[in-house]
Amino acid sequence: MRKLVITRTLQIFIFCALSVPALAQEPGFDCTKASGSIEQMVCADTELAALDRRLSAAYSAALPKAANEHPPILKAEQRGWIKGRNDCWKAGDKRGCVLEAYRRRIVELQARYHLIDALTTVRYACNDSPADEIIATYFQTDPPSLIAERGDQTSLMFLAPSASGARYMGRNESLWEHQGEATVVWGYQAPEMRCQNVQATPAASLAGTAWELVAIQSMDDAQGTTHIAHPETFTVRFSADGRASFRIDCNRGTTTWKASPSQASPSGSLEFGLLATTRAMCPPGSHDQQVLRDLPHVRSYLLKNGKLFLSLVADGGIYEWRQAKP
């Protein structure tokens, strides 16, 4: 009887010892539930299985960082990515298609959710226009990548083969830098922008500064730029305690402000809280209603040549301010 017990124990030990390495090679999903030829391929391929485990780890790390996204897109994107990966059965090189899908998705999660430290952030001045400024954050991923920001739009780009310089390609955007100059394309069939790599300088604080509104730049060419006849009638003052005081023509208002300066350029994100104002009727021709309508949509700022530029969400326009007189 004792001999039988030892034999069974030995059998269980041998089974577990042989099973552990096999389980370690499995992907992040249950291979017993694999559906379709692509998931079966991942289960049977050591390298692809390892990439799936890396992706699962990156996705798990990104989830808490995406908790405040509105709308919540991470889970939906992941489902879409799985569908795209499984569509690799249509490719001529099925394994190559799956391999590239994993590498790019891992990089996308690492860069977008800052799961790894950035190498550097570079500001590119383009077309001598604040609306065309590009902020590029570079990551040492595999393959190397960057996230480019233009206003409230972002684009993930990957390093691509190039005869000279560094060329990064995204879905409909590209950035090609060579000897301090860059050629940027932003959008499908958009014209090239000529840009300069601007020497990074620390972001200046808005706290304690005061500004007068001089112009409202519309992204609609038909509307163009509206110049404010009396800048002193539209002012904003940023207090160090997080309060902002406005004069909006014949009205006064207060709100809160919150800025996140970029470490590599005199710019950053900026948002105002709920604005409380007086309700006087301003003279005909005043721009008070437009300013009141647009202030809640401010999303970023840029300090350049002694002026403050506030950009609205979704290319809604740019507010240009000059320093207020003492």
Automatic annotation (TrEMBL):
<dbReference type="InterPro" id="IPR009739">
    <property type="entry name" value="LprI-like_N"/>
</dbReference>
<feature type="domain" description="C-type lysozyme inhibitor">
    <location>
        <begin position="124"/>
        <end position="192"/>
    </location>
</feature>
<dbReference type="Pfam" id="PF03724">
    <property type="entry name" value="META"/>
</dbReference>
<feature type="domain" description="Lysozyme inhibitor LprI-like N-terminal">
    <location>
        <begin position="31"/>
        <end position="109"/>
    </location>
</feature>
<dbReference type="InterPro" id="IPR052755">
    <property type="entry name" value="Lysozyme_Inhibitor_LprI"/>
</dbReference>
<feature type="signal peptide">
    <location>
        <begin position="1"/>
        <end position="24"/>
    </location>
</feature>
<dbReference type="Pfam" id="PF07007">
    <property type="entry name" value="LprI"/>
</dbReference>
<feature type="domain" description="DUF306">
    <location>
        <begin position="204"/>
        <end position="311"/>
    </location>
</feature>
<dbReference type="Pfam" id="PF09864">
    <property type="entry name" value="MliC"/>
</dbReference>
<dbReference type="InterPro" id="IPR018660">
    <property type="entry name" value="MliC"/>
</dbReference>
<keyword id="KW-0732">Signal</keyword>
<dbReference type="GO" id="GO:0005576">
    <property type="term" value="C:extracellular region"/>
</dbReference>
<dbReference type="InterPro" id="IPR038670">
    <property type="entry name" value="HslJ-like_sf"/>
</dbReference>
<keyword id="KW-0472">Membrane</keyword>
<dbReference type="InterPro" id="IPR036328">
    <property type="entry name" value="MliC_sf"/>
</dbReference>
<dbReference type="InterPro" id="IPR005184">
    <property type="entry name" value="DUF306_Meta_HslJ"/>
</dbReference>
<keyword id="KW-0449">Lipoprotein</keyword>
<protein>
    <submittedName>
        <fullName>MliC family protein</fullName>
    </submittedName>
</protein>
<keyword id="KW-0564">Palmitate</keyword>
